[in-house]
Known about the structure:
alpha/beta; D-Maltodextrin-Binding Protein, domain 2; 2 domains; five-stranded mixed beta sheet; 36% helix; elongated; signal; molybdate ion binding
Amino acid sequence: xxxxxxxxxxxxxxxxxxxxxxxxxxxxxxxxxxxxxxxxxxxxxxxxxxxxxxxxxxxxxxxxxxxxxxxxxxxxxxxxxxxxxxxxxxxxxxxxxxxxxxxxxxxxxxxxxxxxxxxxxxxxxxxxxxxxxxxxxxxxxxxxxxxxxxxxxxxxxxxxxxxxxxxxxxxxxxxxxxxxxxxxxxxxxxxxxxxxxxxxxxxxxxxxxxxxxxxxxxxxxxxxxxxxxxxxxxxxxxxxxxxxxxxxxxxxxxxxxxx
Length: 259
């Protein structure tokens, strides 16, 4: 996706700068699924205000897929900003691939469930209800990201249903879980709420109980060798600013400042 907006700064900025024009830059942003909806809503306003172009590269925060952000960086792909799961970003920091001090906390993401639009609503709001829903579901899908790893390796076991649900459960690679539920391939799907809500044809059921949640922190940073480090830092500060938090929360995320 490309957001291409190249304008002069706003009137107030122009008055301050006289007749000088803002130098437009192409800022390359690698972002993983959980924060993408918020970024797509907020990015155009930043681009307009700064006169820059945002070039967006989508990919998971981890995993073996060539599209995964760490694998892209390993291949030498250039980026000015990376937005990803916090602990995956920590690994890049340990590897020396991130500019020191550039990490910015962006949002927390919780796990929710969907069914196909028009299907009977199910309950996942209490441990007992979630357990019964899992046992009665004909098929279950979950993502290949942090939330899906938790569902597969921990959530089922905590509910004591791992053996019963394993034969009818599937980790979905690359594809949004809600989309395979919307097509009718699976009856019940789990993923981070912010990745479920944008998909048409699926009905959001709700978040899993807080006592069983796995909260994923999303953060951004500037990779070593970024061509536009100053602009990248400005974008991250904007995405984390109090003024944009209503938009962040509307996409299904939780503000870091609210925790």
